[in-house]
Amino acid sequence: MKLHRNAKSTPSTRLIMVQRVLHEGWSYADAAEGFAVSVRTVAKWVRRFRDGGLAALEDASSRPGRPPHQTPAETVTAIRAWREAYWIPAWRISRAVGVPTSTRSCRRCGPRPTPAGCRWSTCTPRPRVRTPSPTPTT
User: Fold this and answer.
1) How confident is the chain (138 residues) per 10-residue block, as mean pLDDT?
2) Looking at CB atoms within 10 Å, which of 50, 51, 101, 105 has the fewest?
């Protein structure tokens, strides 16, 4: 992960900070003053080091993980298959698959495909006629 130029600490300085607190007997306040960070930040890195070791001092990704309420990929595949095969509305698909109608997975699949025999599939839309706006007279 890239560090920005205003970063107060890097993984190596965090390790030095933690070693001074744990092995050299520095207080959190002394370490915070020496490294120009808050006492809370020192406590956070010491706790992370105790919980996860050296690897816990590395920068973690800020990308959020998979939300717990996201519809599983298998269900989305089933919804897409129902939508393409049977041309039925979202509420019937949701009953068949077992998800609420309001899930984004139904909307993510796009609008229902137009069946081949439908008269609207063969008709072409009329071209839009634009009338020029009247020019103001002075």
Assistant:
1) 67 92 94 93 94 88 71 79 75 78 61 54 56 64
2) 51
| 3-class SS letters over 99-112 | CCCCCHHHHHCCCC
Say how many Å lie between the first and final Cα of the chain, rounded: 64
Question: 């406590």: which residue's tokens?
Answer: 43
Using CA atoms, how far apart are residues 76 and 61, in angstroms rounded to an integer? 27
Domain positions in the chain are 11-57, 73-110
Q: H or E element: which one contains 4?
A: none
Token pair 């996860």 is found at 52
**Token duo for residue 63:** 């990308």
pTM above 0.70, yes or no: no
Structure tokens at 36: 């120009």
